[in-house]
Amino acid sequence: MLIVKSALKGVVPGFNIASDFAEALDKKVQELIKEAARRAEANGRKTIMAKDL
Q1: Contact status, residue 29 vs residue 3, Cβ threshold 8 Å
Q2: 3-class secondary structure for 4-46?
Q3: CB within 8 Å of 40: residues ≥ 6 apart
């Protein structure tokens, strides 16, 4: 898991974070990373950059 639940709480103080939210967010982040990697590869790069998002 890439997402740290305790770090999420710092983003939204005063709110609780459900465990299923952290898991769903982690899945979306992993999908974003994989898509960025595909874009970088399609552009002949091995480095994923912010512009790949």
Answers
A1: yes
A2: CHHHHHHHCCCCCCCHHHHHHHHHHHHHHHHHHHHHHHHCCCC
A3: 46, 47, 48, 49, 52
Nearest to 23 by CA among 49, 45, 53, 2: 2
Whole-prediction pTM: 0.83
In angstroms, how far is CA 3 from the centroid of its own chain? 7
Phi, psi of 11 (to 5 degrees): -80, -35
Q: Is residue 11 part of a domain?
A: no
pLDDT digit of tens for each residue in the chain (53 aa)?
Answer: 899 888 999 999 999 999 899 999 999 999 999 999 999 999 999 999 999 99
User: How many domains does the chain divide into?
Assistant: 1
